[in-house]
Amino acid sequence: MHDAPEGATVIVQRLQLGTGFLASEHDWVSGHLASLGSRLRSFRADQVDLEVSVKDRQGVEQRVTLECWINRSPRLHLVATSSKRDLPAALSEVRDELIRQVDEAKTRTEPRNNRALRSVPALPEHE
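Above: the chain's sequence. Below: its structure in token form.
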């Protein structure tokens, strides 16, 4: 993937294909998940592990799962699932959900880096 957008490299390097995917589909799946890479750029590539799997592929109960482990303190384990029957649509749904979860996780830790947000005003005392 020499034309990969910036940040997509972490997806190509760290994505493992689980149950239901063939090794030959790695580039295709990585391409669908590429926009997730821009959200993961703030972490070192060796801190991120991704795995995507599909159960009952092309079946009535198809379920796509995308898991992300981010090795930092505390270690994060994020999971997104989709039961859409169209595989590209399901991959897009889990990608978007994981983007949301990564953004939320980053927001939760931001106040530690911002003195104004860390300062909590004292509550008035009741008599």
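Residues 78 and 101 are 7 Å apart (CA to CA).
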